[in-house]
Design a protein that fits this description.
Elements: H1 2-12, E1 25-27, H2 30-33, E2 42-45, E3 52-55, H3 57-68, H4 75-98, E4 109-110, H5 122-129, H6 133-147, E5 150-154, E6 157-158, E7 163-164, H7 174-178, E8 200-206, H8 207-218, H9 227-230, E9 231-236, E10 242-247, E11 250-253, H10 254-261, E12 268-273, E13 276-282, E14 290-291, H11 292-300, H12 305-312, E15 317-320
Parallel strand pairs: 2-4, 7-14
Antiparallel strand pairs: 1-3, 2-3, 5-6, 5-15, 8-13, 9-10, 10-11, 12-13
């Protein structure tokens, strides 16, 4: 649990502003080297320096998995995460081929984690894992070896990759959370998740802390309601995830409340006690797609990578690519 929380914290800091030098071959003149480039290579733009780094697909997958999943997870779960990294790169490649992003200057993606999935350089991975780096690298490299020739597809195209840390016992659909009906991003069981200690998080705030956070987030000048009536749950999904909240008689999306109060998940309940309010949250992340801890529990029970992926992404096909 501690390692996973460290990984989340490291990702949130967005260390990716450092140019990718560990796993990569530096490319400073893409035009001069384009003829020599591997067609499967992944070009990553540094938003700080403007330099483009060219990585082999294997090294891109390694850096992605380092940034996205603890290396002490089961091998089959790491393979599943690695396949998702490969699939993400392939989907990005198709997107850029049909509609290039001018700001990328010919790269496939950048180190801006608000726009693209996270990636760790070797130095970042070494900083996180310390003396355990070599062991971690061996496991993740093996997962990358497995995933390099595979892509998870729907109707022949790479899927829209979605994953989160842990669910509340079920994942949510893209339609519920994002308003977009994506057939393979439906709600599925992930029943082992709520049995794990990491699934439950409590966030307690004083009355004044809550009011300050809400006024800042929503640009409110005052909040007159009593603490018990300050926030009410206005809409839930069929599975109980909070979709809308009412604050001072105004309706807001629940994800904005989570941002304001640093709640790890929209699946929460609210209790008040004297001058404090407590949010009890189940799960971590947007709850769509693969639950990483759920995948790990499936792997512990003997499920293989493909079984894990097809469970969390129904009606998809894993193909050689």
């Amino acid at each position: 649990m501690k390692d996973y929380l460290q990984l989340l914290a490291a990702t949130a800091i967005i260390l990716l502003l450092i140019p990718c030098i560990g796993f990569a071959k530096r490319q400073t003149d893409s035009a001069a080297t384009s003829a020599e480039s591997d067609s499967s290579a992944v070009k990553l733009l540094s938003t700080e320096t403007g330099e483009i780094t060219e990585l082999s697909m294997h090294d891109y997958i390694v850096g992605s998995v380092f940034a996205q999943m603890p290396a002490d997870f089961e091998d089959e779960a790491l393979k599943a995460q690695a396949v998702l990294a490969k699939t993400y790169a392939e989907r990005r490649r198709l997107s850029e081929a049909s509609n290039p992003t001018e700001a990328l200057n010919g790269a496939l993606l950048s180190d801006d984690t608000t726009l693209y999935q996270a990636f760790f350089t070797e130095s970042q991975a070494r900083e996180l894992y310390g003396d355990n780096y070599d062991t971690a690298y061996k496991k993740i490299s093996a997962a990358a070896d497995y995933a390099e020739g595979l892509t998870l597809t729907y109707d022949g195209d790479p899927i829209l990759v979605a994953f989160h840390g842990i669910s509340f016992g079920y994942t949510e659909s893209a339609l519920t959370m994002w308003g977009e009906d994506i057939p393979y991003l439906s709600s599925v069981e992930s029943l082992a998740d709520p049995t794990l200690d990491i699934c439950t998080t409590t966030v307690t705030l004083t009355d004044s802390e809550l009011r300050e956070a809400l006024m800042t987030e929503y640009s409110l000048t005052s909040l007159d309601a009593d603490l018990n009536d300050l926030i009410t749950i206005a809409q839930k999904s069929e599975q109980g995830t909070v979709l809308k909240v009412t604050i001072s008689d105004s309706l807001y999306d629940a994800d904005t409340l989570c941002d304001a109060l640093s709640l790890p998940s929209q699946h929460f309940t609210i209790t008040c006690d004297d001058d404090e309010i407590t949010f009890t949250c189940l799960g971590c992340g947007h709850l769509v797609g693969m639950s990483q801890y759920g995948a790990n529990e499936m792997a512990k029970s003997g499920s293989l990578c493909e079984e894990i992926l097809l469970h969390y992404f129904p009606n998809t096909v894993l193909i050689s690519s």
